[in-house]
Amino acid sequence: MFPTPQPLLTANTYAYESEPMVKPTGFREYDARWLFGQEINLMGVQALGMGLGTLIAELGRPQEIVTGHDFRGYSASIKYALIAGLMASGCKVHDIGLAVTPMAYFAQFELDVPCVAMVTASHNDNGWTGVKMGANRPLTFGPDEMNRLKEIVLGAAFKQGAGSYVFHPNFPARYIADLTKHAKLKRKLKVVVACGNGTAGAFAPQVMEAIGCEVIPLDTELDHTFPKYNPNPEDMEMLHAIRDAVLQHKADLGLGFDGDGDRCGVVDDTGEEIFADKVGVMLARDMSAIHPNARFVVDVKSTGLFATDPVLQQQGAQTEYWKTGHSYMKRRTNELNALAGFEKSGHFFFNAPLGRGYDDGLVSAIAICEMLDRAPGKSMSDLKNALPKTWSSPTMSPHCADEVKYRVIDQVVKHFEAAKANGNLVAGQPIRDLVTVNGVRVTCEDGSWGLVRASSNKPELVVVVESPVSEQRMHDMFEAVNVVLRQHPEVGAYNQTI
After folding, report:
1. Considering the entire predicted model, what is its pTM?
2. Which end of the chain is more exposed for a tag (fewer CB within 10 A), N or C?
């Protein structure tokens, strides 16, 4: 499958591993994720770098690329293996060192480099590694590029070349200066900044202080073992830790950043978590008041309020529901030149004037603080309570192996399509609407809905339910969806339920 490996960086022992290992399922829909040591080794990462450099040339892009790494204990060695492969395929590599993912995206613009390969497994458990890649800023790869990359790497169809390497010292200072170049907040906000011991801890407190916040740091020390919880602002354990800190310090809000800093979660002044889609509605209200007839893109996991909120309707806001996944959302937001894109996981994409189109948890945090700054006398909970009431679940993820999860989803989609065609009831009501752009989102007559889709980066399914009617109707939708899933023995236990 692979040519005989040659030592490309002779000072590093990884160059002498006997043979490369790359598990095919690690090539996901729009990025790459593997269990390091079990599904990929360093020679496999080197092959990945050669494949990525080959693909960049094949796409007709200049072979020049930014790379950085998160704080996991093995990420630096993985990055250098990747660099070895990139250089062997003819790439000029710009290394920015320890970074959050959006810092690498920023570097593409700041250094005028077309391509990016960021070594991170984001919020995945310790032991995972991965790479987020792109060749056309601010976009990242989608299924077409990832499938082609997989073919090149597994088929060892590598282009040979003589690349080069440059390290950019103190690059974080340039990133932080760019984030904080605007006017400071007029309103003094006390903010809990929680990083789950992930990479964002090296940057987030400094940025939030620089825009004028009083920062209460929470688990901002870098520790790649993640001793308390995974840095995932969708995870209730992290959100509850933020809640406790907000209440203890009487903070105005809490902000939680994921492992690679491209997502942001929010807890209000009462200690209640606000799921990111509801934060998106609040931001859309704020932004469309400044920019009439604004266009937004939201993912299929997101609240129905984007379509029904009377304030957004009054301000002429238009919203399109699209595929879940940071690459899909980024691309669609760019294609439509939307003002912003909002994903329930906390990936937010701001075009000018707020951002450059890529997802950055710190840009999101700044936008949230500026929203509060424009609402004198209003708290975060006031803005939340001004939204029409809905009952929403967290994102729930039953285990389902990568090899079978898409087949299961195909069968679930067919089940609900048949139910609609036959006039069958779901949760006691007729089906009003089916959206099948990404799994299936089934909406009942009263507006209650449930979504089932395959996770793009883990061996899991994704389940979300919401009702504008009552908490009981939310539970009814969950049961209706869960009954269908339990017909498939390949679907395991949930990580959390409502």
Report:
1. 0.88
2. N
Q: Please identify which residue in the block is written with the tokens 């200049």.
A: 62
* DSSP 3-state of 130: strand
Amino acid at 291: H
Dist CA 119 CA 123 (whole Å): 13
CA angle 252, 379, 354 (to 5 degrees): 85
For the chain, give the mean pLDDT: 94
pLDDT digit string, tens, across residues 232-248: 998 889 999 999 999 99
**Distance in angstroms (rounded) separating the CA atoms of residues 233 and 482:** 24
Rg value, the chain, Cα: 22
| C-beta separation of 179 from 212 below 8 A | no
d(CA 487, CA 12): 50
Q: Which amino acid is it at 350?
A: F
- Name the residue among 74, 51, 127, 140 with its Cα closest to residue 101: 140
Residue 15 has pLDDT above 80, yes or no: no
pLDDT digits (tens, 9 = 90+) for 185-216: 999 999 999 999 999 999 999 999 999 999 99
Contact partners, residue 371, CB within 8 Å, separation at least 6: 282, 283, 286, 383
CA 350 to chain centre: 14
Whole-number Å distance between alpha carbons of 41 and 31 = 17
Give the Cα separation of 238 and 3 in Å (integer): 45
DSSP letters spanning 51-116: HHHHHHHHTT--SEEEEEE-SSTTHHHHHHHHHHHHHHTT-EEEEEEE--HHHHHHHHHHTT-SEE
- In degrees, to the nearest 5, what angle opens at C-alpha 118 toward C-alphas 114 and 120? 165
Sign for the CA dihedral angle at 71, 53, 140, 400 comes to negative
Tokens at residue 378, please? 């209003």
Please identify every residue annotated as catalytic.
Answer: 122
